[in-house]
Each structure stands twice: as C-alpha cells, then as structure tokens.
Design a protein that fits this description.
single chain; 335 residues; 10-stranded antiparallel sheet; 3 helices; globular; disordered N terminus
Amino acid sequence: MRKNLWIGLCLLGWVGCGSLAALADLLPTYPHTTIQNNVLIVELYLPDAEQGYYRGTRFEWSGIVQQIHYAGHTFFGDWKTGHNPANHDDVNAIASEFGMHSPLGYAEAKPGESFVKMGVGELIKAASEPYHFASPYTLAQPLAWTVTQGTDWIEFQQSLPDFKGWGYDYTKQIELSADAPVMRVHHTLKNTGHVNLDTDYYCHNFTIIDEDPIGPDYQLEFPFVVTTSNDMKGYAEARGTQIHFVQTIPDSFHTLLQGWEEASSPNEIMIKNTKRGVALRIRGDRAPHQFALWTTALATCPEPFIPIFLKPGETMTWQDEYTFMLLPSALDEDR
C-alpha cells in the first residue's frame, strides 16, 4: 500500500523520485504518519520511547517532521549521514527544545537526582556541572504523549502532573490550510504547578531544499536590516535585509542576529533556493528574546528563542507558520 503511494506520487510529480527511495527505506523503520492537503504532503515521526526515530534528551519528541513535499520539491530531510536515535541532534526539520540552558529542577538537583526536560521526561543529573544540551543524560522516565490525528492535522499532548512543584499541560497541533501551501504549528502551554514556570522555547528549523547543500544557491531574507554577531567564518555575508552564502559550508557556524529588536515583524525569515526557484517563509507570532542562526553543510537553521514566564494557573499560546512558495521566476516558467 505504502509502496504504491510512493510510486503514484512520483508519477504525479509531487516529489523527486531520487529522494523517495531513501525516504521509503527510512520511514517504515520507525513509527510514523502522514498528513496532507491538496498541495502539501507532510511526513512525520511519532513519539515512541521504545522505537521512536528520536529518543534523545535534548529536543522534545512531538511533531518531528522528516520531509515536506510541495510542487515537485522537497523541504527538510536528513542533514547527517547515519542515524542514532539517542544522539542529541539526530533529528530533522522543525525540532524544538524547551529550556536549552536551564531545564526544570536542574539547578536544585544533586548528582544522581532527577530533573525534567520538558517534552522529554525525567533525566538524571550526572555531576555538579552546569547543564549542557549535548550531554548524554540518562532518561529515567519518559513522559507520555497522547496523539490524535485527522487527514490534514495532528495533535500531540503531554502533561507533567507534579515534579517538586513544577507541572504543565502542553499541546502542539500541526495543521495544514485547506488549499494553500501553508502549515501552522499551534502551541498551548499551561502552568499546572505551584511555582513559576520560567524558561524559553525555540525551534531549530533544520532547513534544506531539494537536498541541495547549503551554498551560493541559498539566500536568507528578513523584514529588517540584519547584522550578525560574527563574520560567519567568511562562509556568508549580511547585505541589507539578506544573508548571502558565498560558498558551500565545509563545517558549521553559529551567530546571533541583530536588527529584529525594533522591527514590526521581528520573528520572520524567508529561506530561498534560487537554483530551484522555491522558498520557505517561517513566521512566528511572538517576539523573540534571541534570534540565532546555525548552519552546516546540509542545513541552515534560523532559531528564534521565545521567552516563557507563567505563574501557576497561567496559560500561554503561540504559533509558527510555514509557507511554501514558488519564486516569481519559477512561476513565469510555469506559465
């Protein structure tokens, strides 16, 4: 059944058949599902503590997209060779993280005691050292997820009943517009505990288009004049409202972005692949308190960090919108 679906999609031109072979080999290995509308097909992995594609202790486990197909193009996908489900960054696409620098209860825990990584579960503090997101913490108890799904939407829900005064209800819903190439990710977080919930959230947005390596064919565009905290190793340059990649990326770089602080739309970026004539616009409805950019050979990753401060009983909502589009040159060719 699934093989016939892939063959049909190839014939219809939804996706590049070259990428489907690898995708079809990988997806059945792990619990997964698909949502779609008339123009988008979204392949997702499902959270599973025993067999899940991602079982690391850094990113939360819900809504992990493998790849999105639009108008014969692919967005997202593998950016590493090989895969280790337990590794901290062996994850794709719209992987998100709570408390990158300070998980719940870490500062208070003694070595051997537990703390909570939101969206993951109860972890063990190994030593009297500052928390580091890439460290391989032991997962003592994963938190359960409830998953419900329709044709063009999927919802993930997780609760922390009580942990040393902390507690929360978290819901993530991914929905597709009825007839447009738009995906929206809705988040709802309620503090059900007895202490303040003081943390932050960001999405890593591991972006690759048509499996093309990051290089001169890519441009990043912002609704503000952008500057960076470093020179990006000479691999990229900020030019007005754009960042241009001047060469392929042999390793990786990280920089903080400035210019968004006074912008009317501070949480927005467009990633263009001019060679393929397509783009992805990512827009959040909450202003960030930090906007980072990490880039490696097969992914460029805009990372707006959203502050979260909730008193007991308070609820916060936020939304990220992903719009997939053909650039004007590609539209002209279609005509």
